[in-house]
Every structure is written in structure tokens, then in C-alpha cells.
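Quick one, C-alpha cells below. Sequence please?
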């Protein structure tokens, strides 16, 4: 079940706000070390995710845990998977169709995926360490719905997950409201700076750097 440790729940409205601001702004506004390894990249151009984490851990080259995780997934969940960095076809079109039917909003895979053309045609957002056709087994049930570490960052059930072309960030529910507030202030400040820069102002002066 995707709920946070403290019982807080990230709302759909909060997720929409995080998605609008994007990962670069959210990361800076959070002040947290919450960015996953930048080697995890979108498998198709324009993929974006904003949802609640359902953490999953697999044995290398075994995707049974992904099938099992979908059985407990709720609408708005994002599967955030520790695939041990293994490049193989953990995920493809069949699992994406199953995920879409469950209301899952995307996949973060520290490992490999395949069927990338089909994933793009579906519009199902996937971020992975690589693309690989190599087959997987289905032997070990793994873990789902428990706190794990994925690509260098702790991920708990119900954490907010935001992913786009700039990267992937994971926030605990308690950090979401202040991060949204600081994101708005950051965007307003940067918008004002951009207007002044276009009018001829120097970034050295705007940011108060010494000359």
C-alpha cells in the first residue's frame, strides 16, 4: 500500500504543482539531496512523471517483482525499482499495458527496459539506466511497498516522485508543501531576473557576485 511512514499523503493537486515546476526547480527549492543518479534517463523524448512512489526491489535479471507490484499498485503510483543496475529487459509493452490498466503513472527503473517504441506510442513514461532486449527470469518475489534505496536515494511508499528531461527527484510527503511554496518564489524571482537580463542587466550584478 502506498502510504508514507508518517501517515501523510501527497495530494493530486500537490503532484500537479510539482510537475509544473519541473525537477530542476523542485530540487533547488527542496534543499534536499533528493536527486537520483543522472544516468537514469527518459527512454523517449518528452516523458514526464509526477506521482506517488511504490518502491520495488528485484533480484538481478528477474522481473517477477514487477508483476507482483502491479497487484498492489493504486492509481497515481509510480513504480520506483531497484533493478541492481542490471541491463536487461525488465519491462516492456506487456507490463506497461498492465500498469496503465491499474492507473500507474510511470516507471523509474534502475536497470534496463525494452519495447521503447511501443512505450512512446502509448505515452507511458519510463526512465531507466539503459535499453536492453536481454531476457529476464521469474523466480524471486522481491520486495514491494517497503522503503529501499534506488539509484542513491531512499524511497519510501507514498513519496512524491517527479521526473523529466532534467532528472528525477524524490521527496518525502512532509517536504512537499514547503517545496511548492519555495518553488513558486523561485520561479517568480527567476522570471523577474530574466526580464532584467533581457533589458541589459548583468548576471554578476543580479546575483551580487563580486567583480
Amino acid at each position: 500500500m502506498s502510504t508514507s511512514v508518517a501517515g501523510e499523503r501527497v495530494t493530486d493537486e500537490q503532484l500537479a504543482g510539482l510537475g509544473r515546476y519541473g525537477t530542476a526547480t523542485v530540487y533547488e527549492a527542496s534543499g534536499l539531496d533528493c536527486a537520483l543518479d543522472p544516468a537514469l534517463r527518459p527512454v523517449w523524448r518528452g516523458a514526464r512523471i509526477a506521482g506517488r512512489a511504490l518502491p520495488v526491489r528485484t533480484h538481478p535479471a528477474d522481473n517477477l517483482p514487477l508483476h507482483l507490484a502491479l497487484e498492489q499498485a493504486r492509481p497515481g503510483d509510480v513504480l520506483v525499482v531497484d533493478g541492481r543496475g542490471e541491463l536487461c529487459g525488465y519491462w516492456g509493452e506487456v507490463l506497461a499495458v498492465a500498469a496503465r490498466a491499474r492507473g500507474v503513472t510511470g516507471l523509474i527503473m534502475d536497470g534496463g527496459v525494452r519495447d521503447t517504441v511501443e512505450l512512446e506510442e502509448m505515452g507511458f513514461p519510463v526512465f531507466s539506466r539503459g535499453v536492453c532486449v536481454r531476457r529476464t527470469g521469474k523466480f524471486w518475489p522481491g520486495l514491494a511497498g517497503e522503503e529501499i534505496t534506488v539509484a542513491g536515494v531512499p524511497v519510501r511508499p507514498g513519496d512524491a516522485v517527479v521526473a523529466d528531461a532534467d532528472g528525477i527527484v524524490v521527496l518525502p510527503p512532509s517536504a512537499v508543501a514547503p517545496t511548492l511554496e519555495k518553488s513558486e518564489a523561485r520561479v517568480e524571482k527567476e522570471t523577474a531576473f530574466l526580464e532584467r537580463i533581457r533589458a541589459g542587466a548583468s548576471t554578476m550584478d543580479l546575483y551580487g557576485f563580486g567583480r
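The chain is about 35% helix and 25% strand. The radius of gyration is 18 Å.
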